[in-house]
Amino acid sequence: QVQLVESGGGLVQAGGSLRLSCAASRSIFSIHAMGWYRQVPGNQRELVAALGSGGVINYADSVKGRFTISRDNAKNTVYLQMSSLKAEDTGVYYCNAKIWSVNMLRDYWGQGTQVTVSS
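and the corresponding structure tokens:
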């Protein structure tokens, strides 16, 4: 199990930057994958960026070249650096951890942090 706490959201103008942080309650070194998802009202939660334990990184096409996901194992924290923000980046951003449990991958979620980009 793991508890995840996001921070860093807020209101920013288009073209600006924000850095989201996700602090985990345990070591993230052996977690299968950690990532960030975004949800807007009426839509499903969608993947923004994910970082696997082996270093593999995936980004949604809409954020490639603008967002960077990274991790600090010593601080048990995953970051999402968001630059050149657009109005369509607005949403609630959730931190996710995928952890193996009895031969199954289980999802754990933070409470979410709101990001609002004004145009």
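(Above: one complete record from the training split.) Residues 65 and 83 are 9 Å apart (CA to CA).
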